[in-house]
Protein backbone atom coordinates (compact mmCIF):
# COMPACT_ATOMS: atom_id res chain seq x y z
CA UNK A 1 0.00 0.00 0.00
CA UNK A 2 1.53 3.27 -1.14
CA UNK A 3 -0.88 5.75 0.40
CA UNK A 4 -1.32 6.59 4.05
CA UNK A 5 -4.71 5.51 5.41
CA UNK A 6 -6.40 7.69 8.03
CA UNK A 7 -8.98 6.33 10.49
CA UNK A 8 -10.84 8.61 12.91
CA UNK A 9 -12.60 6.86 15.78
CA UNK A 10 -15.05 8.82 17.90
CA UNK A 11 -17.59 8.24 20.62
CA UNK A 12 -18.33 8.82 24.26
CA UNK A 13 -16.14 8.08 27.24
CA UNK A 14 -16.47 4.52 28.52
CA UNK A 15 -17.35 2.93 25.16
CA UNK A 16 -13.99 1.22 24.65
CA UNK A 17 -12.66 3.56 21.98
CA UNK A 18 -9.09 3.39 23.18
CA UNK A 19 -9.11 -0.43 23.24
CA UNK A 20 -10.50 -0.43 19.70
CA UNK A 21 -7.71 1.94 18.63
CA UNK A 22 -5.07 -0.28 20.21
CA UNK A 23 -6.40 -3.33 18.37
CA UNK A 24 -6.52 -1.55 15.00
CA UNK A 25 -3.04 -0.07 15.48
CA UNK A 26 -1.71 -3.47 16.61
CA UNK A 27 -2.97 -5.12 13.42
CA UNK A 28 -1.45 -2.38 11.24
CA UNK A 29 1.91 -2.80 13.01
CA UNK A 30 1.77 -6.60 12.74
CA UNK A 31 1.11 -6.23 9.01
CA UNK A 32 4.39 -4.30 8.71
CA UNK A 33 3.12 -0.74 8.38
CA UNK A 34 4.35 2.40 10.05
CA UNK A 35 1.58 3.51 12.43
CA UNK A 36 0.88 6.70 14.33
CA UNK A 37 -1.92 6.98 16.89
CA UNK A 38 -3.18 9.84 19.02
CA UNK A 39 -6.14 10.23 21.38
CA UNK A 40 -8.09 13.18 22.70
CA UNK A 41 -9.86 12.12 25.88
CA UNK A 42 -11.87 15.26 26.68
CA UNK A 43 -14.26 14.68 29.57
CA UNK A 44 -14.15 10.92 29.01
CA UNK A 45 -15.03 10.00 32.58
CA UNK A 46 -18.19 12.11 32.38
CA UNK A 47 -19.49 10.81 29.09
CA UNK A 48 -17.76 13.45 26.98
CA UNK A 49 -16.30 13.05 23.51
CA UNK A 50 -13.35 10.77 22.95
CA UNK A 51 -11.51 10.79 19.62
CA UNK A 52 -8.68 8.62 18.38
CA UNK A 53 -6.62 9.28 15.26
CA UNK A 54 -4.88 6.33 13.55
CA UNK A 55 -2.76 6.68 10.44
CA UNK A 56 -0.83 3.87 8.77
CA UNK A 57 1.26 3.47 5.64
CA UNK A 58 4.80 2.95 4.41
CA UNK A 59 6.01 5.99 6.37
CA UNK A 60 3.76 8.15 8.54
CA UNK A 61 5.03 11.39 10.05
CA UNK A 62 2.05 12.57 12.09
CA UNK A 63 -0.91 10.91 13.80
CA UNK A 64 -3.18 13.93 13.38
CA UNK A 65 -6.01 13.70 10.85
CA UNK A 66 -7.15 17.02 9.43
CA UNK A 67 -10.83 17.65 8.66
CA UNK A 68 -11.71 16.36 5.21
CA UNK A 69 -8.90 13.78 5.10
CA UNK A 70 -10.15 10.69 7.01
CA UNK A 71 -10.62 7.62 4.84
CA UNK A 72 -12.73 6.03 7.57
CA UNK A 73 -14.78 7.54 10.38
CA UNK A 74 -15.84 4.92 12.91
CA UNK A 75 -18.31 6.27 15.43
CA UNK A 76 -19.60 4.58 18.56
CA UNK A 77 -22.51 7.01 19.08
CA UNK A 78 -24.86 8.68 16.60
CA UNK A 79 -24.47 12.34 17.65
CA UNK A 80 -20.69 11.91 17.69
CA UNK A 81 -20.95 10.69 14.08
CA UNK A 82 -22.65 13.93 13.12
CA UNK A 83 -20.13 15.94 15.13
CA UNK A 84 -17.12 14.41 13.33
CA UNK A 85 -18.54 13.65 9.85
CA UNK A 86 -16.66 16.66 8.47
CA UNK A 87 -13.43 14.68 8.87
CA UNK A 88 -14.53 12.42 5.99
CA UNK A 89 -13.81 13.24 2.35
CA UNK A 90 -15.63 12.32 -0.83
CA UNK A 91 -15.43 8.55 -1.14
CA UNK A 92 -14.75 7.92 2.58
CA UNK A 93 -16.64 5.34 4.60
CA UNK A 94 -18.49 6.23 7.78
CA UNK A 95 -19.32 3.30 10.06
CA UNK A 96 -21.72 4.32 12.81
CA UNK A 97 -23.41 2.70 15.73
CA UNK A 98 -27.04 3.89 15.80
CA UNK A 99 -27.05 4.08 19.60
CA UNK A 100 -27.99 7.42 21.15
CA UNK A 101 -26.32 8.48 24.41
CA UNK A 102 -27.86 11.71 25.59
CA UNK A 103 -25.39 14.48 26.43
CA UNK A 104 -26.10 16.51 29.58
CA UNK A 105 -27.63 19.40 27.62
CA UNK A 106 -30.13 17.05 25.97
CA UNK A 107 -30.86 15.06 29.14
CA UNK A 108 -31.58 18.30 31.02
CA UNK A 109 -33.98 19.45 28.29
CA UNK A 110 -31.88 22.48 27.29
CA UNK A 111 -31.54 21.27 23.69
CA UNK A 112 -33.00 18.53 21.51
CA UNK A 113 -31.12 15.52 20.18
CA UNK A 114 -30.83 16.02 16.38
CA UNK A 115 -33.28 14.03 14.28
CA UNK A 116 -32.67 11.88 11.18
CA UNK A 117 -28.91 11.72 11.62
CA UNK A 118 -28.39 8.63 9.45
CA UNK A 119 -30.52 10.14 6.68
CA UNK A 120 -28.51 13.37 6.89
CA UNK A 121 -25.26 11.42 6.68
CA UNK A 122 -26.53 9.60 3.59
CA UNK A 123 -26.76 12.94 1.74
CA UNK A 124 -22.95 13.23 1.96
CA UNK A 125 -20.71 11.84 -0.84
CA UNK A 126 -19.57 8.98 1.42
CA UNK A 127 -20.50 5.36 2.08
CA UNK A 128 -22.51 5.07 5.29
CA UNK A 129 -22.73 1.78 7.19
CA UNK A 130 -25.18 2.12 10.09
CA UNK A 131 -25.27 -0.75 12.59
CA UNK A 132 -27.33 -1.24 15.73
CA UNK A 133 -24.18 -2.48 17.47
CA UNK A 134 -25.54 -1.76 20.94
CA UNK A 135 -28.55 -4.09 20.57
CA UNK A 136 -26.36 -6.82 19.08
CA UNK A 137 -23.78 -6.45 21.86
CA UNK A 138 -26.57 -6.77 24.45
CA UNK A 139 -27.87 -9.91 22.73
CA UNK A 140 -24.34 -11.34 22.90
CA UNK A 141 -24.38 -10.76 26.65
CA UNK A 142 -22.38 -7.56 27.14
CA UNK A 143 -23.25 -4.08 25.83
CA UNK A 144 -19.58 -3.10 26.16
CA UNK A 145 -18.80 -5.23 23.09
CA UNK A 146 -20.02 -2.44 20.79
CA UNK A 147 -16.35 -1.64 20.23
CA UNK A 148 -15.52 -5.12 18.90
CA UNK A 149 -18.55 -5.10 16.59
CA UNK A 150 -17.37 -1.82 15.07
CA UNK A 151 -13.75 -3.02 14.87
CA UNK A 152 -15.04 -6.12 13.08
CA UNK A 153 -16.99 -3.95 10.62
CA UNK A 154 -13.91 -1.85 9.89
CA UNK A 155 -11.72 -4.94 9.54
CA UNK A 156 -13.77 -6.08 6.56
CA UNK A 157 -12.79 -2.88 4.72
CA UNK A 158 -9.06 -2.94 5.49
CA UNK A 159 -6.48 -5.06 3.59
CA UNK A 160 -5.62 -7.37 6.49
CA UNK A 161 -6.36 -11.08 6.83
CA UNK A 162 -8.86 -12.15 9.50
CA UNK A 163 -6.23 -14.33 11.16
CA UNK A 164 -4.10 -11.24 11.86
CA UNK A 165 -7.03 -9.60 13.64
CA UNK A 166 -7.63 -12.72 15.74
CA UNK A 167 -3.97 -12.89 16.68
CA UNK A 168 -4.02 -9.31 17.98
CA UNK A 169 -7.35 -9.84 19.78
CA UNK A 170 -5.98 -12.96 21.47
CA UNK A 171 -2.91 -11.07 22.62
CA UNK A 172 -4.80 -7.98 23.79
CA UNK A 173 -7.95 -9.35 25.47
CA UNK A 174 -8.19 -11.40 28.68
CA UNK A 175 -8.96 -15.09 28.03
CA UNK A 176 -12.29 -15.01 29.91
CA UNK A 177 -13.81 -12.37 27.60
CA UNK A 178 -12.06 -13.41 24.39
CA UNK A 179 -14.71 -15.84 22.99
CA UNK A 180 -17.58 -13.34 23.33
CA UNK A 181 -15.48 -10.54 21.86
CA UNK A 182 -14.50 -12.74 18.90
CA UNK A 183 -18.23 -13.38 18.35
CA UNK A 184 -18.87 -9.62 18.39
CA UNK A 185 -15.96 -9.03 16.01
CA UNK A 186 -17.27 -11.71 13.61
CA UNK A 187 -20.76 -10.17 13.73
CA UNK A 188 -19.28 -6.82 12.70
CA UNK A 189 -17.41 -8.40 9.78
CA UNK A 190 -20.51 -10.26 8.61
CA UNK A 191 -22.64 -7.10 8.87
CA UNK A 192 -20.44 -5.31 6.35
CA UNK A 193 -20.32 -8.31 4.02
CA UNK A 194 -24.13 -8.09 3.77
CA UNK A 195 -24.18 -4.38 2.90
Task: Looking at this protein, list some descriptive labels.
195 residues; alpha/beta; Pyruvate-ferredoxin Oxidoreductase, domain 3; 6-stranded mixed beta sheet; 8 helices; 6 strands; 38% helix
Quick structural overview:
The protein has 195 residues and is of the alpha/beta class. The protein has 8 helices and 6 strands; from the N terminus they run βαβββαβααβαααα. A hairpin with an 8-residue loop joins β2 (34-40) and β3.
Explain this structure.
The protein is α/β, with parallel strands linked by helices and 195 residues long. It has a single domain, classed as Pyruvate-ferredoxin Oxidoreductase, domain 3 (3-Layer(aba) Sandwich), CATH 3.40.920.10. Helices cover 38% and strands 23% of the residues. It is built from 8 helices and 6 strands, in the order E-H-E-E-E-H-E-H-H-E-H-H-H-H. The chain has a 6-stranded mixed sheet with strand order 2-3-1-4-5-6, with helices on both faces. Helix 1 packs across helix 7 and helix 5 crosses helix 6. The longest helix is centred in the C-terminal third of the chain and has 17 residues. It is globular, with a radius of gyration of 16 Å.
Helix/strand layout:
Blueprint: E1 5-12, H1 17-30, E2 34-40, E3 49-57, E4 70-75, H2 78-84, E5 88-97, H3 104-107, H4 117-121, E6 127-131, H5 133-139, H6 146-155, H7 162-172, H8 178-194
Parallel strand pairs: 1-4, 4-5, 5-6
Antiparallel strand pairs: 1-3, 2-3
Helix pairs in contact: 1-6, 1-7, 5-6, 6-8
Head-to-tail CA distance between termini:
25 Å
Tally the structural domains. Answer: 1
CATH class: Alpha Beta
Strand numbers in spatial order across the main sheet: 2-3-1-4-5-6
Along the chain, the helix and strand elements come as EHEEEHEHHEHHHH
The whole-angstrom Rg is 16 Å
CATH superfamily: Pyruvate-ferredoxin oxidoreductase, PFOR, domain III
Low-confidence stretches: none
Mean pLDDT: 91
CATH architecture descriptor text:
3-Layer(aba) Sandwich
> What spatial form do the alpha-carbon principal axes imply?
globular
Biggest sheet overview: 6 strands, mixed
Helical residue percent? Answer: 25-40%
Put simply, the count of helices is 8
Secondary-structure content class:
alpha/beta
- Count of individual beta strands: 6
Amino acid sequence: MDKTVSILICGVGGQGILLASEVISGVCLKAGYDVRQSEVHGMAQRGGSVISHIRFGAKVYSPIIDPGTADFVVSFELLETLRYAHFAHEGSTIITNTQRILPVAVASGAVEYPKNIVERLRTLPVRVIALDAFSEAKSLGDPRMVNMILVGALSELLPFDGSLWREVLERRLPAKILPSNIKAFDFGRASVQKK
